[in-house]
């Protein structure tokens, strides 16, 4: 089965081809960073227009890489939500039109499920059930993943998502969009930097409260107070980035330990853009010992991509799932618990 996957939920157009015999055979990505950077964040209308311009060339590129013709496709999977309404509509309209023209089925994939499945794409030893930490720009959730399409939320952020907190913290220190990875890189510089200002450890939000819920907006406010009192120079940026990252990583590790205790699972999947964070990866590896097996997607597939959509679509299509009609429907909001 050849499944074409299309991702267009935010500021990345991703296309990939998954082959049930060979695995992932081709993928291509176009990032809109340059377009949104001048505005300091994603401008939804610009995102939609850019998806329109890149989707067809990316599909052609993927088919060329795979040396197959459109006629050889068996199904098309696309991100149906959650995400920006207009951006989602571009991918959905394209995918459904192409599937209609080719007379093949389509399937609308849940973006967050696709993030989780990215870990399975690269490591077939990963099997359900597992506990998942999903940390992206729009979501921060701890989940019990029982089977494909069967997820139970066991904790989530009550305000900002972790990626959002990274981005907003970076922005308030004058670091360009998308600030998250840049802030993380500054934090990682701290160990080799000399003469950094001393900064008291930042609070670990919600750790004294029972349960697995999280909150990051207070941490962002804390950063803003410390930044205002600092010399506002490069050294202050490095020291604050480090204190911020340490607080986020330790908080996530504490909540992950609680979630694992609650589920009793022996596998942990960490997915979403912030799953690319090296400090988080190292801390979870150190914490997980031999009893818990830890899975991450490859770095390039932590952030949005078409491969995770093609693969997740394939898993559902192989079980017989299909879009119920040719209607083009997207869900800007789509609770994880309602995947299937
Ligand atoms: O999953 P993703 O590509 O998009 C959403 O579905 O939201 O995640 C993007 C988020 C951004 O907030 C970005 O700043 C953050 O992931 N991010 C990171 C790192 N790489 C990406 N945050 C911290 N450390 C990183 N290395
Ligand atoms: Zn995403």
Features:
five-stranded mixed beta sheet; 43% helix; 10 helices; 10 strands; alpha/beta; binds 5'-O-[(R)-(carboxyoxy)(hydroxy)phosphoryl]adenosine; Nucleotidyltransferase, domain 5; single chain
Explain how this protein is built.
It is a single chain. The protein has 340 residues and is α/β, with parallel strands linked by helices. The chain is built from 10 helices and 10 strands. It folds into 2 domains: 155 residues, Nucleotidyltransferase, domain 5; 169 residues, Nucleotidyltransferase, domain 5. Strand 2 and strand 3 form a beta hairpin. Helix 2 runs parallel beside helix 3, helix 4 crosses helix 10 and helix 5 packs across helix 6. The longest helix is centred in the C-terminal third of the chain and has 30 residues. The chain is globular, with a radius of gyration of 20 Å. The structure holds 5'-O-[(R)-(carboxyoxy)(hydroxy)phosphoryl]adenosine (KG4) and zinc ion. Zinc ion binds next to helix 4.
Distance between the termini: 22 Å
Structural class computed from helices and strand pairing: alpha/beta
According to CATH, what is the topology of the largest domain?
Nucleotidyltransferase, domain 5
Bin the strand percentage: 15-25%
Low-confidence stretches: none
Radius of gyration: 20 Å
Q: State the helix count.
A: 10
- CATH architecture verdict of the largest domain: 2-Layer Sandwich
How many domains, as an integer?
2
Topology:
Layout: E1 2-7, E2 12-19, E3 23-31, H1 33-37, H2 44-66, E4 75-81, H3 85-102, E5 106-110, H4 111-122, E6 130-135, E7 140-147, E8 150-156, H5 162-172, H6 179-189, H7 217-229, H8 234-263, E9 267-271, H9 278-288, E10 293-295, H10 307-318
């Amino acid at each position: 089965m050849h499944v074409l996957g299309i991702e267009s939920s935010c500021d990345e157009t991703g296309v990939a081809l998954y082959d049930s015999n060979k695995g992932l055979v081709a993928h291509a990505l176009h990032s809109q960073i340059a377009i949104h950077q001048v505005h300091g964040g994603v401008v939804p209308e610009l995102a939609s227009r850019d998806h329109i311009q890149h989707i067809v060339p990316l599909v052609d590129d993927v088919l060329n890489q795979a040396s197959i013709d459109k006629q050889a496709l068996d199904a098309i999977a696309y991100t149906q939500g959650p995400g920006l309404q207009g951006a989602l509509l571009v991918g959905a309209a394209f995918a459904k039109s192409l599937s209609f023209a080719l007379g093949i089925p389509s399937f609308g994939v849940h973006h967050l499920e696709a993030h989780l499945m990215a870990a399975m794409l690269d490591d077939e030893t990963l099997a359900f059930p597992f506990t998942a930490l999903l940390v992206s720009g729009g979501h921060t959730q701890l989940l019990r993943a029982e089977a494909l399409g069967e997820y139970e939320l066991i904790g989530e952020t009550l305000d900002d998502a972790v990626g959002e907190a990274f981005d907003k913290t970076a922005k308030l220190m004058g670091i360009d969009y998308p600030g998250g990875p840049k802030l993380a890189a500054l934090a990682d510089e701290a160990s080799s930097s000399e003469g950094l200002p001393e900064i008291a450890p930042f609070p670990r939000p919600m750790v004294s409260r029972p349960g697995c819920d999280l909150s990051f907006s207070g941490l962002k406010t804390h950063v803003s107070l410390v930044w205002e009192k600092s010399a506002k120079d490069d050294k202050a940026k490095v020291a604050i980035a480090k204190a911020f990252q340490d607080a986020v990583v330790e908080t996530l590790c504490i909540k992950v330990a609680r979630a694992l205790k609650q589920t009793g699972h022996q596998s942990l999947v960490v997915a979403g853009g912030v799953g690319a964070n090296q400090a988080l990866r190292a801390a979870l590896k150190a914490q997980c010992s031999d009893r818990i097996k830890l899975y991450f997607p490859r770095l390039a597939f932590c952030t949005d991509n078409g491969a995770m959509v093609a693969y997740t679509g394939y898993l559902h299509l192989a079980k017989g799932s299909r879009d119920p009609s040719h209607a083009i429907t997207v869900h800007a909001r789509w609770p994880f618990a309602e995947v299937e």
